[in-house]
Amino acid sequence: MPHRRAADRGHQATLDLTDAERLIQATLAHQPVTFRYQGLMRTVEPHLVGMHEAGEPVLVAYQSEGASRTGDLPAWRTFIVTEIEDLEASDRAFAGPRPGFNPGAHPMLLIFARA
User: What is the pTM of this model?
Assistant: First the structure.
């Protein structure tokens, strides 16, 4: 069996990640992500991925672009991770946590990643 180059193995490992795992990576790397949520495309800066006390994995993010049914943009939003589809991480990075980010405002049983 031929050996793949390290770069090829790294690329394959990225392809094999779930959307939730790629979301955690993007949060840690401060990479904006675009995804479909409740049928609408959104672009956000992910700030927190965790298990909410209600038992669902959630994303707390600053939505900068796209559509929203619940109000004006840009704004802070909370998304149920299992309802996120077509996730794509950007190659660029955002500066880090935005002013107004309050991780304590979202009661989590477990935090997987925080910007």
Answer: 0.84
| Structural domain count, the chain | 1
CATH code, domain carrying 58: 2.30.30
Provide the pLDDT for residue 15: 67
- Contact in structure between 92 and 36 (CB atoms under 8 Å): no
For 55, the domain range is 19-114
- Over residues 39-63, the pLDDT tens digits come to 999 999 999 999 999 899 999 999 9
Residue bearing tokens 């707390």: 60
Whole-angstrom distance, CA of residue 50 vs CA of residue 16: 21
Place of tokens 């955690």: 24
CA distance 58 to 108: 9
**Cis before 46? omega within 30:** no
